[in-house]
Fold:
Amino acid sequence: MSKQDAEKIERKGKKSREMYNEIDLDKIDINEGPPTEEPARQYYYMAKCREWVKAFEQKNGRMPKACVVNMGCQMNARDSEKLRGVLELIGYGQTESEDADFVIYNTCTVRENANNKVYGKLGALSTFKKKNPEMKIALCGCMMQEPGVVEKIRTSYRFVDLVFGTHNIYKFAELLFYAYESERMITDIWEDTDQIVEELPIERKYFFKSGVNIMFGCNNFCSYCIVPYVRGRERSRKPEDIVREIQKLTEDGVVEIMLLGQNVNSYGKNLEAPVTFAELLQKIEQIDGVKRIRFMTSHPKDLSDDLIDVMKRSKKICRHLHLPLQSGSTEILKEMNRHYTKEQYLELVDKIRGAVPDIALTTDIIVGFPGETEEDFLETMDVVRQVQFDSAFTFIYSRRTGTPAAAKENQVPKEIVRDRFDRLLEEVQKIGAKKAMRYSGKTEEVLVEEVNRQDDKLVTGRLSNNSVVHLPGDRSMIGKLVKVRLKECRGFYYLGEVLAE
Ligand code: SAH
Ligand code: SF4
Ligand code: F3S
Structure:
């Protein structure tokens, strides 16, 4: 048995499917017309799709297999779990091979190379489809929200069966049903939505940890960024819905949750009864089964003193904050529409470290924004040296059609950007390696996440600050919090040993 199969069985043993209202598809009358209200309408279409799956099984003597490929950020990953939840409920088996009966790419478009990857992979899929003409291919996610993309798919990738976007992902079951019924490509892209549909099935990747959307969309319009155009305006979920979801998750064995939003610090502003992110965290802290709380992403401009105070007093919020810097130059930050200066960012870091001294800070940095001079770049290097980030995601600026920065004429030549990128990466890695050592010899709590990929006598887990730890153990420890002595730091991870209880 492969390790992956073993892990799947391990997961199946635990309850990892969230189905809040426990709807029995067999009890839905599919001879009647579809209900108009959600999510009942989607469960109706799931029941319809299940008939299709049963017919497939009779004809082929096996269950159909689906492959969900996630290509984007944590929010997309959570959406992929929703797609898997529907597929699983209607009777598909899951596979990681793209030589499957149903393949769906949940795409990202934040940088151009993400788009190119999709077109490249689609070429390979067409070969599989020639071999298996019954195969269905679907595309969804952020890239589909871009004007021009769907047109290109319609003309150059006609073997695709279904295309939908980010706003109507909750309609997946309905769209899948249409795709079964039609010989032609089904496309359904919405420009925006104010709708949030709750209570659809979700198939989680891990039984012990889960992402939880607290809001969708983004209103910030950083001038380089395409996300607000493809994810629409900011919409917060009601706190009671979030709390109910988390309570359910803990009943299913989840101990760690990651609250997800493009800018969690502006959570709740558009609710009928406004609630702040700090207040939401306090509510979640009170849920018994929750042992660890993470969140992402925090925009520096909206990080409140209240939030810092809640983090300081919390026993459950992890000692890790991802605080995207983007640039260390006040000039460039202004052009980026980030609404903070270099000094304000540094002050914020001081304030956070003052309240939570052992916190790990990570960041995102873009190199080569239009008009970035060597002096601007040195400002970024200066912030990196002053803050001493535990790690940083570094990106080469990518010109995204439709964003204000893309229209700028002062784009930085590729060779200069590459040189700056290399210098930044070297610095970031040097600092990261030094910072990683600081827990050596200490005893810390580790959440065990999986059997080590290289050595099955070890398991791998994470500290509250997100550092990776390998320690002797077996799969029975997965999902458990254990006290571990961090014996040795090897670059970016620790080797540890469990302390006797
Ligand atoms: N909402 C989050 C991040 C979303 S995208 C935030 O504001 O921090 C993740 C990261 O991708 C961003 O932080 C940014 O560093 C990077 N990014 C976004 N648009 C980009 C572009 N056009 N070129 C290069 N990197 C980009
Ligand atoms: Fe993009 Fe800025 Fe919104 Fe983040 S906050 S998603 S970088 S526009
Ligand atoms: Fe990519 Fe969409 Fe996330 S563009 S980064 S998958 S919100």
